[in-house]
Prior knowledge:
Layout: H1 3-72, H2 75-95, H3 102-131, H4 138-142, H5 146-258, H6 265-291, E1 299-302, H7 304-319, E2 323-330, E3 334-337, H8 339-357, E4 361-374, E5 377-388, H9 395-399, H10 416-426, E6 430-436, E7 440-448
Parallel strand pairs: 2-4
Antiparallel strand pairs: 1-3, 4-5, 5-7, 6-7
Helix pairs in contact: 1-2, 1-3, 1-5, 2-3, 3-5, 5-6, 7-8, 8-10
Amino acid sequence: MSNVFKVRLGGFALAILVVASMIGWAAHASWRQFDQLNRRLNEMPIESFNTADQFRANLQELDYVLLRYSVLRDGADRERFIRGWKKLDEWIDVQRPALTTDKEKTIFDRINAAYDDYYAAATNLLESAANDSPGGTTVAAFQQIEPESSRLLGLGYQLVTAHHDSLARFLGDSQRSLRFLRRLIVGALVVLLMLLVSLAVGVYREMVMPLRLKLVESRAIIERQEKLASLGVLAAGVAHEIRNPLTAVKARLFTQQKTLEPRSPAYEDSRVIGKEIDRLERIVRNVLQFARPPEPNLVMLPADVPLREAAELMGPQLEKSGIRLRLEALTTEGLQGDLQQLKQVLINLIQNAADSIGRDGTIILRARRGNERLNGSARPVIILEVEDTGKGISADVQKRLFDPFFSTKDGGTGLGLALAARIVQKHGGALRFRTRLNYGTTFGVLLPVSASA
Length: 453
């Protein structure tokens, strides 16, 4: 797991925690809002509206007692009115703190002041009625208090209206708050879902997919190694059996050449036979080297050294075909390698590039640092590149490019690239290529960067 992915994973976890906290807060706030709404809906009709209704009922009861006293002049009615007035006055003082809005409290303050005016008018009426005889001008006397009573009743209706407005406002605010919280929860759930999907995709890409690729690569490598091992055993046995009679044939040919006249047809035939024997020996040697490649003698090398020495060996030969061998962008960073084996790989790649060009082209050699997947994990590597301007490699040939004994060249053994790939593998690296038909091919020798570099 890379450090970048660890940072991203931590960021995802933090974001998920934040979104989950938002959802929890929104759910808690919604629950509190619902609870408050339920409580207000239960309390307001019972307390607020009953406050106005009870006030109006008590006031009407006082008006009735006062009117009865004005008509009958009964002292009990007078005492009953005074007790009722005191009780209602105390009730007004108790009810005001229970009101919820400023408008209701303002109306209640006006009711309190008007109630004092009502009591003053009622006191005048009681005194006038006490000095008058029963059955006197009752209606005229009662008209003195009717405006104050009507004013108080009107304020009672205003209090009911204020209760309605307060409830409507509260319901509107609650609805807006609930809509906001609902949208917040839905949005947070969507964001949480997106984060979880992104996290799943990231885990799949960074952990599951590399494991699957590594498994597929491992299976392919195992299958290839099994095939190469079987082929190597067979090739080694065949080459060993061929080498002994080949040595005997070469010895007998050398003996026969001593008895032949130089420049005679028989002598020329023996020279041709000798060249073919040498070619067979070279093939046998390559087969044995492929079957049992020697272990590399790893030493610390600057990355540009194998390229420079390979260029010195191949440069003069390529000039005869009009092929320019150019060195560019050569890093001198260190790597662990066997100089002779790496030169063998590069010479093979340069020769293949020259065969692809034919005549009049360019081969470019580079050494650079990069980051590539090597042995199942991304890591820094040194890349030795051989780029040509040849005709490229077709798709059919690419599939079998590293197969032993497969060759597109007349007289080729098909062991060059297979042997080069095994040498690079022994170095802990990989041999890769990219190609484009009619434009050229680039082979890259990927080698791990030295730990001391």
